[in-house]
Amino acid sequence: MTVAALTQLLAGATRIVAFTGAGISTESGIPDFRSPGGIWTRYDPREFTFDRYVVSAEVRRRSWAMRRELLAGAHEPNAAHRALAELEDAGRLVAVVTQNTDGLHQAAGSREVVEIHGTSRAVTCIGEPTSGVPAGCGFRAPASWAFERIDGGDDDPRCPDCDGLVKSATVSFGQAMFPDALEAAAEHATSADVLLTIGSSLQVYPAAGLPQAARSAGASLAIVNDEPTPFDALADVVVRGRAGEVLPGAVADALGR
Ligand code: APR
User: Fold this and answer.
1) Do residues 103 and 125 both lie within one domain?
2) Contact residues for 36 (Cβ-Cβ < 8 A; gap 6+)
3) Over the stretch 193-232, which tens digit does the pLDDT of each residue have?
4) With 80 as the cut, is the pLDDT of residue 137 above it?
5) Quick one: pLDDT band at residue 1, thresholds 50, 70, 90?
6) Do residues 123 and 220 both lie within one domain?
7) pLDDT > 70: what percent of the chain?
């Protein structure tokens, strides 16, 4: 389908919810997970489950190394992030629900952002959990707090308040989702008139259930992705392409600019 069909859908919408994945940040220099060269083509995701993080100091060391690689360099929002912020400023986009933890939507100026998989920009105490649920004391610090300690030779930083384990404030495989974020994401998806899915392979649940939930609640579904997704047949509009090339023009035309 063409970008014109996406433009037409956005032009008639007043409660757009954007649902984004790692593909919206690749043009900012951050690798996605499942494309050739993506994170999970270089690290084994089965190694980075929450329970393995809790029991293995070696997994924690490799996890910090992987996060440093993801965060390395000053990544800036790209034209796709900015286009969504422009839609919000024009009063047409209600929220961004993102699977990403890079903070680029907020950096682009988006205000209502639900980080359904948490954020890499902070670390938190998870205590000594015995299940997939963090049991921290409440300690939270910028990610730089951990990297400063790692650079100083402590490759397994512990909580300064309770000596519990410290982890990136993200949701790992096997970890319970953050209930508030999940609830907010579902609320936005089921009250949208258009769910605009961008840069996600739509393979990881419960996040990947949002397009179906939105559709079932009556929203139109648009997908912008540079490869097919399992939800293409369900979508009203599918645009095969790069987010940073497709979105700016579609948004400008939809806003009559
Ligand atoms: N424009 C459009 N699509 C793109 C671009 C781009 N510039 N770059 C990559 N893509 C597409 C890829 O073709 C792929 O289909 O974005 C999709 C990214 O898919 P994944 O790498 O699987 O990332 P994502 O869907 O966000 O993964 C979901 O999996 O491992 C977990 O927690 C992790 O949040 C992540 C979740």
Assistant:
1) no
2) none
3) 999 999 999 999 999 999 999 999 999 999 999 999 999 9
4) yes
5) low
6) no
7) 100
Of residues 201, 224, 256, 189, the one with CA closest to residue 15: 189
| Residue 56 lies in domain | 31-74+119-170
C-beta 23 within 6 A of ligand 1: yes
Q: What value does the mean pLDDT of the chain take?
A: 95
- Tell me: cis bond preceding 134? Omega within 30 of 0 counts: no
Q: Which ligand 1 atom is at minimum distance from the Cα of 20?
A: 26
CB of 169 sitting under 6 A from ligand 1: no
Are residues 154 and 251 both part of a single domain? no
Report the CATH number that the domain containing residue 109 is assigned in CATH.
3.40.50.1220
Residues 181 and 248 in one domain: yes
Is the Cβ atom of 121 under 6 angstroms away from ligand 1? no
**CB under 8 Å to 160, separation ≥6 — which residues?**
139
Same domain, residue pair 159 and 250:
no
Judge if the beta carbon of residue 99 lies within 6 A of ligand 1: yes
Count of domains observed in the chain: 2
Ligand 1: residue whose CA is nearest its atom 21: 33
Q: How many angstroms does the Cα of residue 26 sit away from the middle of ligand 1?
A: 9
Spatial separation of the C-alpha atoms in residues 152 and 137, rounded to whole Å: 24
- My answer on whether 98 and 195 are in the same domain is yes
pLDDT tens digits, one per residue of 16-53: 999 999 999 999 999 999 999 999 998 899 999 999 99
Distance CA 248, CA 251 (A): 5
Which CATH number do you get for residue 47?
3.30.1600.10
117 is catalytic: yes
Ligand 1: residue whose CA is nearest its atom 10: 23
User: Using a 6 Å cutoff on CB, does residue 115 contact ligand 1?
Assistant: no
How far is C-alpha 118 from the chain's CA centre?
8
pLDDT computed for residue 253 by the predictor: 97
